[in-house]
Fold this sequence. Notes:
The chain is an alpha+beta fold. It has a domain at 6-101: Alpha-Beta Plaits, CATH 3.30.70.60. Helix content is 34%, strand content 30%. It is built from five helices and four strands, in the order βαββαβααα. A four-stranded antiparallel β-sheet has the order 2-3-1-4, with helices on one face. The radius of gyration is 22 Å and the shape is globular.
Amino acid sequence: MSTSKRLYETTFIINASIEDPQIEALITHVQEIITGNGGEIKAVNRWGRKRLAYPIQKKNNGFYANIEFADIGTAIARLEHMYLLDENILRVLTVQLDEKAMKARQQQQQAYAAQPAGETAPAASAPAPAPAPAPAPAAAPAAREPLFTDEADEAAPAKQE
């Protein structure tokens, strides 16, 4: 078995009818299981209370939480066991993040960070300018860069027809 740490993401829905301190204690317990088994927490996202698309265990609302972590795989079995035993956890999804998705996420974050601050939010104090006339349609749409690139595609020369 390899000892290199892999990136995982676990998303779980907690029963929203319990109190906030109990929800925080449950999220902390999940973090302790991960770190206690040699994992390293990368990010904890609390998405909050949301209405479920369909009832789960006769519940219509849930508190969504997402934890990204690096682990060699030892914490996964313990997490899944804890999820099964805890009656306040309604649904769980734990996935291993692949390298292509991580590269795409980093590129997206870099592109967002490189965007000038003036483009992200309009000034509230300035009066709104009159709308400009619509530009004429372009002859051909601009080619979009693919989100994922395959190493095999990069190594193989492009075929010309």
